[in-house]
Amino acid sequence: MSHGSTGSEPSEGDLRKTGLALKHDREWDYELDRIVSAVNERDASTVGLQFPEGLKRRGPAVADDLRSLLGDDVHVMISGQPCYGACDLDTYLMRRTDVFVHFGHSPMKESEKIIYVPLFSNVDVTPIMEETIDELPEEDVGLVTTAQHMNRFEEMRSWLEERDYTVHTRRGDERLTHEGQVLGCNYASADIDADQILYVGGGKFHPLGLAMEHPDKRVVIADPVNNVVTVADTEKFMKQRYGAVHRAMDADRWGVVFCTKIGQGRWEVATDIVENNDDAYLITMDEVTPDRLRNFDFDAFVNTGCPRITTDDGPQFHKPMLTPGEYEIAVGNEPLESLSFDTFHGTW
Amino acid sequence: MSHGSTGSEPSEGDLRKTGLALKHDREWDYELDRIVSAVNERDASTVGLQFPEGLKRRGPAVADDLRSLLGDDVHVMISGQPCYGACDLDTYLMRRTDVFVHFGHSPMKESEKIIYVPLFSNVDVTPIMEETIDELPEEDVGLVTTAQHMNRFEEMRSWLEERDYTVHTRRGDERLTHEGQVLGCNYASADIDADQILYVGGGKFHPLGLAMEHPDKRVVIADPVNNVVTVADTEKFMKQRYGAVHRAMDADRWGVVFCTKIGQGRWEVATDIVENNDDAYLITMDEVTPDRLRNFDFDAFVNTGCPRITTDDGPQFHKPMLTPGEYEIAVGNEPLESLSFDTFHGTW
């Protein structure tokens, strides 16, 4: 097997290292016809559009195209709220528009009101998969990917089967739309009977979570966006987490964050902690940021919202920031060995 | 008249240059008895507390004191959302708690649900007023202050009257609770028949807005917090605004921000702009920040939310950010001479 073109210059149409920041609108299918049909069917007078951060700059152009297809009496509005997933719907705009379009993520929960437009990547996945063969020595292999590459999932599976792999896939739980899909907070689709898992997709965000959640499995990353093959290494990540837990062991006063985002609330987890610890205080907020928590005089924080803010952004907070499971270790309710990745299940 | 102790070292209990970041909790009266009465009267099981940014670090101590006064079955929660005024209620927490306490601002709108605890400053105001005499040569003087010093308003008035001033005061409009009160976005209480206005209060935020709104009046600042007397000078401020308007004149595409905060929405202002300009797009958000707008590819922005974000923080945005009035100048609907301060009226 040859190790291909990882070092060459990107050419026109080459999506390497561009992530979501693509040059041409034609790279994405915004499914405007589907939106227009819904507007007409529902006789809608207001349409709300929500884009994830990397695609917000496309908002005006998409709004333009929509306005040219709709009557002058239909008002198009764009959400300016941060958006990091299907868990993160702009409920303010959603409640105030007749049709609400959420771009870039697959549905976490179907709704009459919401149109989910997934925005599938058109990047070719098999060239980089070719380079994973040496890293996948066993016959059994799990296969997972993200919403962006879901349109090529059957192609991935066939490609592996043609090379005599036994491919294990599963849909995970109701938080996930598709078989083989992973989210930053949910890797239930990798609960399969194989010791090696092939992740096909851009970046290390998802495979690092996957490897944390499944420390017994080898996670091979085929990244068709950056055109690299690597094996997920969670060592730095784990050290950072153990460090946070150790520093929090001395905490006298705890701030317990309840996230108000529609798909990130774990009310019982948050209130259980507060009810069982007189030195714990419940704080409610939507965006959980270092700036917002810096205003509070706590020794440590527990974040019951998005676990990736806790684990990935943890070092940016002025005080130790733990997941609910890590909190139980820090206060002595659980042994250090119980440390595990915090995952999210269910919808809302 | 002697010019006093502006340069000396602060001593114990001296509030100079400390603003809201005071050392001792006893400096503020959190009116816990009033909160406890309301909880008991309403048989409340949940209490939400909201503090402005500078007082958030007091949150846990106030929650502690409250918890010791209330039964174990009453749950106290603290808002972690940013809060910059009575216009900025945490509606999520308010809707989900039986009693909602908003600290640090006077009521913008009375409500059964909300308890407003104003947190009056205990700083002495007359020593610094003494030093304003030379700056107030005329007999007629307007008097204004902020919510924090409202407890001393009659003392200020008497002090001036004893020195033979004719003191002009007024309540302004329904956005304001008290006679003589100003907000960062509303100076209707200074619509009085005097060419000189004495502002008694901390910082330059309010008097600069006051001088912008009333360019024909001389605004003298008696700052008992920083212990200085100055005269408001809007020149830099005005230059910055003219600069922003000029840069925005070349804009092809406009982002029109509608702020979703309960007391900051001007829906008709926002939609009027969008309906009359094919190159304008409506964006909805709560916190209007440079980070959030950087994701959007517009040439200029109009902020129909808090005018102080536009005028004071304007230079921090990556593209020109205008008030609705400034927008009308930039697109040629109004002459440059019409440039004026953007004020907010009404409640919600």
From TrEMBL, chains A, B:
The keyword ATP-binding does not apply. It catalyses: L-histidyl-[translation elongation factor 2] + S-adenosyl-L-methionine = 2-[(3S)-amino-3-carboxypropyl]-L-histidyl-[translation elongation factor 2] + S-methyl-5'-thioadenosine + H(+). It comes from the Archaea. GO terms for molecular function: 2-(3-amino-3-carboxypropyl)histidine synthase activity; 4 iron, 4 sulfur cluster binding; metal ion binding. It is an enzyme of class 2 (transferase). Belongs to the DPH1/DPH2 family. This is 2-(3-amino-3-carboxypropyl)histidine synthase. It comes from Halocatena pleomorpha.
